[in-house]
Amino acid sequence: MDAARLHATPRPAAPGTRRAGNPAPAEPQTGAHILLVDDDVSLLRLLGMRLESRGFRVTTAESGAEALRSLSAQRPDLVLSDLRMDEMDGLALFQAIQRQLPGLPVIILTAHGSIPEAVSATQQGVFGFLTKPVDRDELFAAIDEALAQAPAGGEGDDAWRAEIITRSPEMERVLEQARMVAASDVSVLVTGASGSGKELLARAIHRASPRADKPFVAINCGALPEQLLESELFGHARGAFTGAVSEHQGLFRAAEGGTLFLDEIGDMPLPLQVKLLRALQERQIRPLGSTASVPINVRILSATHRDLSQAMHQGEFREDLYYRLNVVNLRLPPLKERAEDVPLLARHLVAQAAARHKPFVKGFSPEALNLLAASAWPGNVRQLVNVVEQCVALTSSPMIPEALVAQALAAEESALPTFSDARAGFERSYLIKVLKITEGNVTQAARIAGRNRTDFYKLLNRHEIEPGAFKPGGGQA
């Protein structure tokens, strides 16, 4: 490709392409970060200089693979890519970008523009498709338009996610999706293991949403008995039940105009699931003991560590409520899948803990950080917080040594589990024991457990236990 051709008169755009046209261009966004991708080094250099002369910050890549590596290190505001490149062309690069950073605007340039390529590109979501030689003003207008329409989220605009410390590409993908979905009012279900930060993500979504200046109200649906949970959510009238000496407005009304976060929604009793579904469908609630309905304007975010699709198929969670809550699903990876975040989180947490308790503590020794990074973290970020707190409390030196981290990790492993974890552990051990006794005979095992076969199978499914593995020759230890 001849770099000089960029100065030639532009061709008419193919149908389906995005052109700036005659209207005045959007206000230039100088300082924006553009990733420029082209396998023609001379053209890459020329176009890079042109963009920098306009005040843009430019990173260059000579291939699609190099561009993806760059994206993993730093998110730009826009990608400008050639279409025809060896190994990975511009459309393949766009598709990879969509998987990694959905919503990042991409403009494709080509000296071989055609109607089918333009239509295919725009149908897939490419922001702009410009044919070479491209006019300087037209290119800048397309870039300014893309930057103006892209969701805010460049460097310096991260206050909404300030509580979430990460450099993990997987977490960045989740946060990019969270930032995009925050702008709408759709219901979001956050899934992930206990302690992975589901409420932090819900708060971040609220802060990035148009409801940010209204209340964010959270409740753990598994922490309260059914009647008390119903009263907390929907409120109650005076005299609705014994002890209801005054009216209680409930959390739906407390969150009016804002966001209601339903944590551990998978533990909500079935009767309450019916009432919640009705509230979401009708956009109004009826407090306990009241005959009047109250209109509500609340966005619902929910979270669970359970497999709700499995609970739904087992009759433990309503299918209609599942689809109402799970419009968008965001899965938080466990800490063991983002090991690169452990040193980053540890440094952040130790600074916080030291500021509260022991200002002389400066951090972890390199050996201590290596041990933290190599640990499995079954309790996820919550467990890491506990380990850091213990280390700060017990250290007498500015740098926390490896031995103290090992001691804190051992203490965590032997710590008293929560009631829910203890019950789950007992159930699983009990089920395995009776299946071993009966050599995988579910009927006999259910009889020993005092459960009918249906309930017993539900328990086995919940703990992902396959009874066939306990039959002679089944391979179960």
UniProtKB/TrEMBL annotation:
<feature type="domain" description="Sigma-54 factor interaction">
    <location>
        <begin position="164"/>
        <end position="393"/>
    </location>
</feature>
<dbReference type="InterPro" id="IPR025943">
    <property type="entry name" value="Sigma_54_int_dom_ATP-bd_2"/>
</dbReference>
<dbReference type="InterPro" id="IPR001789">
    <property type="entry name" value="Sig_transdc_resp-reg_receiver"/>
</dbReference>
<keyword id="KW-0597">Phosphoprotein</keyword>
<dbReference type="InterPro" id="IPR027417">
    <property type="entry name" value="P-loop_NTPase"/>
</dbReference>
<feature type="region of interest" description="Disordered">
    <location>
        <begin position="1"/>
        <end position="31"/>
    </location>
</feature>
<feature type="domain" description="Response regulatory">
    <location>
        <begin position="33"/>
        <end position="147"/>
    </location>
</feature>
<dbReference type="Pfam" id="PF00158">
    <property type="entry name" value="Sigma54_activat"/>
</dbReference>
<protein>
    <submittedName>
        <fullName>Two-component system response regulator GlrR</fullName>
    </submittedName>
</protein>
<keyword id="KW-0804">Transcription</keyword>
<dbReference type="InterPro" id="IPR025944">
    <property type="entry name" value="Sigma_54_int_dom_CS"/>
</dbReference>
<dbReference type="InterPro" id="IPR058031">
    <property type="entry name" value="AAA_lid_NorR"/>
</dbReference>
<keyword id="KW-0067">ATP-binding</keyword>
<keyword id="KW-0238">DNA-binding</keyword>
<dbReference type="Pfam" id="PF25601">
    <property type="entry name" value="AAA_lid_14"/>
</dbReference>
<keyword id="KW-0805">Transcription regulation</keyword>
<dbReference type="Pfam" id="PF00072">
    <property type="entry name" value="Response_reg"/>
</dbReference>
<dbReference type="InterPro" id="IPR002078">
    <property type="entry name" value="Sigma_54_int"/>
</dbReference>
<dbReference type="InterPro" id="IPR011006">
    <property type="entry name" value="CheY-like_superfamily"/>
</dbReference>
<keyword id="KW-0547">Nucleotide-binding</keyword>
<feature type="modified residue" description="4-aspartylphosphate">
    <location>
        <position position="82"/>
    </location>
</feature>
<dbReference type="InterPro" id="IPR009057">
    <property type="entry name" value="Homeodomain-like_sf"/>
</dbReference>
<dbReference type="InterPro" id="IPR003593">
    <property type="entry name" value="AAA+_ATPase"/>
</dbReference>
